[in-house]
From TrEMBL:
GO biological process: isoleucine biosynthetic process; L-valine biosynthetic process
Name of this protein: KARI N-terminal Rossmann domain-containing protein
SUPFAM superfamilies membership: NAD(P)-binding Rossmann-fold domains
Lineage: Eukaryota, Fungi, Dikarya, Basidiomycota, Agaricomycotina
MF terms (GO), sorted A to Z: ketol-acid reductoisomerase activity
Domain KARI N-terminal Rossmann, first and last residues per copy: 4-187
Amino acid sequence: MGQAKIYYDSDADLGVLSNKKIVFLGFGNQGSAQAQNLRDSGIPNDQILIANRVDSYAETAKAKGFHVEHDFATAAKVADVLFILIPDQVQPRVFNEQFSPKLKSNATIVVASGYNVFFNLLKFQPGQDVVMVAPRMIGSSVRSLHEKGRGFPCFVSVEQNGTGKGLDAALALSRAIGATKQGAIASSVREETVMDLFAEQALWPNIIMMFREAFNILKDAGCSDEALCYEMWMSKEPAEIFERAADDGFVAQLKHHSTVSQFGQLSGSLKLEGGAMREHFKDILYNQILSGKFCEAFSQIEDDLDKEGDTNPLNELYKRSEEMELVKAEKRVRARLAGLL
Ligand code: NDP
């Protein structure tokens, strides 16, 4: 794999956006941050429209001085640029039914996550541009870093170049939301989706499983709940290690640990060949993620995720995870720390 191209402010021309009506569908985490950043970058308020149902998000947008449109068909008709910034699982229904039929045939559609585009769940017209501008940050950081005059990491790509000028639009919009200040990395919906889903379905489940098993074994060996919770995560040591890894280097951060620790970690990890894990990871990547199997299964439970109680599959998973000794022990420790026991 080669090096990815990185785009900076100097690669983007904000002039491309002059007189364009820019509609933000959603004013949540990303919508509110990106719309405010874009306005701060000099895009006139009259060019910006927030499309949101009547509720508190719409009220927040109004309070911040934005024009708000509750009727999605009206918002769709006027949009030259449409940022889709509502939760991924509701995008196909809302976009395909309420926006797609009314959108201009040469509109630019912006997604902040690759999932729905990669799995072909959104209906676009051939003359439209479809671009991804995907911050690698939560919305509050997208806003606060911009307010401090700093950038944030972001992926950018053109997925459908209907007008032939998709890249110019993608870069101008990236710059307007503050994403090219630190450098926006050229990527694709495939790359973004694969990395996201792999982290969520392969890497982190194994990390959670390893913590669960480590907790059980050490508890059996006589370690207390308090000592284990603090040793393993409540001290924030793992968070510090990852912070050092980001600053100093994934392996170089080990130099901050004791010699015994450095020796143990390096010799231990190099001894583990990883063959079984490699096969397990490949199975998830190819047979669960890239095959579309996960996407298909998730589409079938999407509607249930809005339900209350045990019929919501996510609630059911949370309930099952409470059976983990690690979770039970942590509850006891936290209750005791709060003086409740
Ligand atoms: P939020 O959960 O914050 O979205 C909330 C917004 O969506 C509100 O405006 C809400 O308005 C609207 N909304 C929710 N349900 C519906 C619906 N059924 N119909 C119409 N509007 C609806 O989303 P995020 O900002 O977290 O995510 C937006 C996109 O950004 C996603 O693609 C996500 O993957 C991506 N992303 C998110 C990051 C994050 O930090 N969260 C990081 C990087 C990318 P109301 O309820 O009033 O309708």
